[in-house]
Amino acid sequence: MAESEGRFDLIVVGAGMVGAAFACACQGLGLSIALVEPRPPQRSWPQGETDLRVSALSRASQRILTRLGAWDRILELGASPYREMLVWEGLGKGRIHFDSADLGEPDLGHIVENRVTQLALWERLEQAPGVTLFCPAACADLELDPNGTAAVTLTLTDGQRLTARLLVAADGRDSWVRQSVGIGTSGWDYDQQALVANVRPRDWHGEIARQRFLPTGPLALLPLRDGRCSIVWSAQAERAAELMALPEAAFAAELTQASESCLGDILAVGPRASIPLRLQHADQYVRPRLALIGDAAHAVHPLAGQGVNLGLLDAAALADALDQARALGRDPGGLWALRRYERARRGDNLAMLAAMDGFKRLFSNDNAPLAALRGWGLALTDRLPPVKHHFMARALGLGDGLPPLARP
Ligand SMILES: Cc1cc2nc3c(=O)[nH]c(=O)nc-3n(C[C@H](O)[C@H](O)[C@H](O)COP(=O)(O)OP(=O)(O)OC[C@H]3O[C@@H](n4cnc5c(N)ncnc54)[C@H](O)[C@@H]3O)c2cc1C
Questions:
Q1: Which of 308, 353, 396 to mutate to test the pocket of ligand 1 (most atoms within 8 A of CB)?
Q2: Nearest alpha carbon to residue 115 among 65, 74, 66
Q3: Contact 209/222 with Cβ under 8 angstroms?
């Protein structure tokens, strides 16, 4: 490619769910966009097969994906609504039940395969004027002027040089961009693995998402349209390795027990995978000509299924900041626009990271008085409709301060 062909307004590194959503959100801002991704999305899969990586998408995410023109395609490819949520304590009797009907909402969210969300967004991007996809492509070098006065230059491993006024890193939790520019992170490894699988229980799940807090880590059973459940079972690394190694029948028996047979016996278990868990927060989200979004900026424990929901809000907030910069004729890669994004998202993300970490610690403790207190807290909250409504509204993304793409 000739050097002139490599000049853009915006480079997005990473076109997973968050990077692809951000690029879609920037269409219409009059920016030329380069999107760099090493792995093409999966285009097709056998009918009835459900991937292991799924996400619970909130109402705010649904709104964003609707406005980006991807939601109808997601429904066509397959999404499983969940109308209620049941959370209970592994050691005591405390439980809490959330019902979308209490808020006058049709559901509390949808379970969607990550590959479905990504593909629906890619299909939009492939038709979008002004968007150039570099895929498969890998990054080799990044030059960021420390004063941010000049453009940012990204060199790909095949030698192509892309320049832009702003580079946005959406390249996930191990972000190459973040590491290349030396932005540090705070956080820690949980020494826990999330074991994921799709399982068939004896009983119909009733479109209820269930989560049991065990002292060894939370176990979530998320309802799928075909009656199976997608499980996320977090456990210490050693226990997770043991569970991964069990033959299917023995694993099913362990899962039946761990879920307190809430859906009867687990009859069948599909392939299993395990993912190491980490809490991580980037020390900075922005530098002149650079912004981090999604897991590149923050990785959260999956116990409340918030990671990609936060990432989509980042994408919407950054697109909004760029839109405001455009309206005022300001530089999209300048700190005026980028700090607006950072201010809009950093506090919210940090609060969610802290809350999820707090829950994880509170419920991982098998101290008897603490367990009793937890059970009491859950039972009490269950009997306080205003508090429950507040939690539900937050989880659904019905709160204030949302970026325009996520607003009702
Ligand atoms: C077990 C588990 C369950 C979860 N459940 C939920 C849930 O229910 N709800 C929820 O909201 N979140 C959930 N999450 C979190 C969610 O999966 C992540 O937050 C989400 O995938 C982050 O999206 P992302 O696009 O920022 O990053 P990623 O999904 O990691 O995508 C990064 C993209 O960047 C690309 N990339 C990587 N390196 C480079 C590079 N050097 N150059 C260019 N591109 C690169 C990758 O190929 C990929 O396409 C869960 C996480 C786990 C582990």
A1: 308
A2: 74
A3: yes
Nearest to 300 by CA among 354, 342, 343, 345: 354
Three-class SS state of 321: helix
In single-letter form, the type of residue at position 243 comes to L
Rounded distance between C-alpha atoms, residue 355 and residue 79, angstroms: 27
CATH at residue 134: 3.50.50.60
Centre a 10 Å sphere on the Cβ of residue 206 and count the other Cβ atoms it contains.
12
122 found inside a domain: yes
pLDDT value for 268: 97
Exposure on the CB side of residue 189, measured as CA atoms within 13 A: 8
Q: Which residue, among 68, 84, 87, has the nearest Cα to 28 in the 3D structure?
A: 68
- Domain assignment present for residue 40? The answer is yes
Nearest CA to ligand 1 atom 3: 302
Cis before 106 (ω within 30): no
Q: Cite the DSSP H helix spans in 181-306.
A: 237-245, 248-258
Per-residue pLDDT, 224: 97
For 25, the domain range is 3-80+114-187+279-366
Name which residue sits closest to atom 2 of ligand 1, judged by CA: 302
CA 286 to chain centre: 20
Q: How many domains does the chain have?
A: 1
Span 265-324, pLDDT tens digits: 999 999 999 999 999 999 999 999 999 999 999 999 888 788 999 999 999 999 999 999
Whether residue 16 is contained in a domain is answered as yes
| 171 Cβ below 6 A of ligand 1 | yes
What's the gap in Å between 19 CA and the centre of ligand 1? 10
Distance in Å, CA 174 to ligand 1 centroid? 10
Q: What is the mean pLDDT of each run of 10 residues along the chain (408 residues)?
A: 68 98 95 97 93 96 98 97 92 84 93 98 96 97 81 95 97 98 92 95 98 91 97 95 97 97 97 95 97 97 89 98 96 96 95 78 71 73 77 77 92
Instruction: Give 367-395 pLDDT, tens digit per residue.
Output: 777 777 777 777 777 777 787 788 778 77
Residue 62 lies in a domain: yes
* Strand order through the sheet with 131-134: 131-134, 33-36, 10-13, 166-169, 290-292, 286-287
